[in-house]
Amino acid sequence: MLEEVGIPEPTKDSGCKLVITTRSQDVCRFMGCKIVKVRCLSDDEALTLFINKVERKIVEVPALKDIVKLVVEQCAGVPLAIVAIACCMRGEYDICEWRNAVEDLSKSIQSVKGMETNVLGQLQFSYDRLKSKTVQHCFLYCALYPEDFQIPKEELIDYWIAEELVEERGSIQATYDGGYSILNRLVNNCLLETTDDGRCVKMHDLIRDMALYITSISPLFMVKAGKKLQELPREQEWKENLEKASLMMNDISEIPPNMSPNCQALSTLLLQENIHLKDIPKSFFVRMQGLTILNLSFTNIEKLPDSISHLTNLKALLLQYCEGLKHVPCLAKLACLQNLNLEGT
Description:
Strand content: 5-15%
CATH superfamily of the largest domain: Ribonuclease Inhibitor
Number of strands: 9
Low-confidence stretches: none
Order of helices and strands: HHHHHHHHEHHEEHEEEEEE
Structural class: alpha/beta
Number of domains: 4
Distance between the termini: 40 Å
Helix content: 25-40%
């Protein structure tokens, strides 16, 4: 199996060693590995890391010393949780806020009891501390992309604008600046990291797990991006209260005839980079009247179904590099449409 991906089998003669990092002991057992546990940070190490991230001045305030230690204890020595929570509390000197933070952190951990040593609960505290529902929705939107995906900032902000998560201002540039301001806030709170010389952002896989946990309840997302799916999820999986669905970067080749999911609340549908997808039945969009964003880029579709003409809430119709596309129905009724991309068709 290793040789299939270009890694020679490690032997004493080759002097090769293979190190695998995982949070699941089952993976180690399956691979026949010797298990070396990576311990969490000690109390002193955890406190030092927290202080470095939150500002030393805060722990020099006598009233805050003990309560800061309580917050660090709740992080259970997990570096990612320590950094994320410290970033949330940076510059906060009010003891009431710190007492409230201890209470909120405890509730977050209890709400996901039994999941991966409560790490998701610790991270959810950072999400809750955003306080703004709009900023929280912007953060959750990033979970629609595959794991470890480098998300282009401008593409993400385009989606946010179409979803009305960014307030429209006097000019396009001013509106984009509002989007970048939200991105910076998410980066500063350690919920996203900047990559590709500042052009993209990325989610740590544990933070993405936390976002997916939230979106499995409310708001409801269906995220199967980059899963090598060959078939579209069954109609039963398309829940009536589904708000966003991402099936991007799969191997889906067809949508069953007469399939018509009842998803009136669905606002975003991402189907891009299913390169074998050639035909979409007319019935598929009939009960998706709330659709705001539809991305079919890098598919092999030859024509759009006529039902597209009735998606009157559609703001973004993205069809880049659908090289076989020859027919688009009348779009006259799409009065909300702001972004129509037919590049490379």
